[in-house]
Specification:
The chain is α/β, with parallel strands linked by helices and 286 residues long. The chain has helices at residues 45-48, 90-93, 95-103, 123-126, 143-149, 155-167, 186-193, 211-222, 227-234, 240-256, 266-285; strands spanning 4-9, 14-16, 24-26, 29-30, 57-62, 76-79, 109-114, 132-137, 171-179, 199-204, 260-262. The strands form 2 sheets. Strands 2-3-6-7-8-9-10-11 form an 8-stranded mixed sheet, with helices on one face. The radius of gyration is 19 Å and the shape is globular.
Length: 286
């Protein structure tokens, strides 16, 4: 099925962030043709009015307003929170590349998250950014599992991208997200990539909305031995698996002297930030 392309006009590419570790987000596109089966960002359709299936549309943002580097001074910016800024259409439209050009003079922390080796195209700009983190998502070394889950770059391409970015002196993160219970072998992934990864981020698989049943169906067909475990975690809300895995990550990373951040309780962190922002706004009006 062909992907529906549409150019849209936006007043500002920068949006205030509710993410726990960033002040602002930049999403150069609406929608994402990587079409990850577990993607939480499909909730965007409630606000954008798209009737197409997630992954079958892409809106290309056009903005006449120049990014204010003064506004971003000493702040943190996350690219991208609800799309992949290096989705295949970036090769054609270059919205992300234009954003990065504008950010070259910004004194802020810039974090880019992607599943695409297209990021290597912009090495010339990336190496000029003052404070940059690049996170590449990998949650398996199994090519069949990866191709079942998304239309992004292959695992080999992502690992190659991490190696090259690290070689260029860029701070590299392997974002192990989402971790699929019993399927993602985090230790094997770390062993295969530790030589060129500065930090690991871990995020658990959250199942909500329509795609929960899709994932259940997939597990029942490809990994039937784990289906009862998935039902216990996601139907019975049993958190013991994640608590134990969290403890295992702490122990393993301490033993191997690995720098990491655990985002298993991401929703709690987001709620805490919203509460903190509300208090700040309340104080500002007094």
């Amino acid at each position: 099925m062909s992907i529906i392309e549409k150019e849209i006009v936006t007043k500002d590419l920068i949006t205030k962030s509710n993410l726990p570790a960033s002040d602002y987000v930049i999403n150069p596109y609406v929608g994402c043709p990587h079409a990850c089966k577990y993607c939480y960002a499909r909730f965007m359709k409630r606000f954008t009015g798209h009737t197409e299936e997630w992954g079958n549309f892409i809106d290309i943002k056009r903005c006449d307003k120049t990014i204010s580097v003064k506004k971003l001074y000493q702040k943190s910016v996350f690219i991208s929170s609800v799309t992949d800024c290096y989705n295949p259409f970036e090769a054609k439209y270059q919205v992300t590349r234009n954003v990065l050009k504008q950010l070259k003079k910004a004194d802020c922390l810039i974090t880019i998250s992607t599943k695409s080796d297209l990021i290597l195209r912009d090495i010339d700009i990336l190496t000029e950014l003052k404070n940059l983190v690049v996170a590449i998502s990998i949650n398996t070394l199994d090519n069949d599992f990866q191709s079942d889950m998304d239309n992004a770059s292959s695992i080999t391409q992502r690992i190659t991208a991490l190696k090259e970015l690290h070689k260029q002196g860029i701070y590299t993160v392997l974002f192990m997200s989402p971790i699929f219970p019993y399927i993602t072998d985090l230790k094997k992934i770390i062993e295969a990539t530790a030589a060129f990864v500065c930090e690991y981020w871990f995020e658990n698989l959250n199942l909500r909305g329509n795609y929960k049943q899709d994932i259940f169906q997939y597990v029942s067909e490809k990994y039937p031995q784990y289906l009862s475990g998935y039902k216990d975690i996601y139907n019975n809300k049993n958190m013991e698996y994640w608590k134990q895995l969290s403890a295992d990550i702490d122990s393993y990373c301490a033993q191997k002297n690995i720098k990491y951040t655990n985002y298993f309780y991401h929703s709690l962190l987001v709620a805490e930030k919203k509460q903190s922002n509300a208090k700040d706004n309340q104080r500002a009006t007094i």
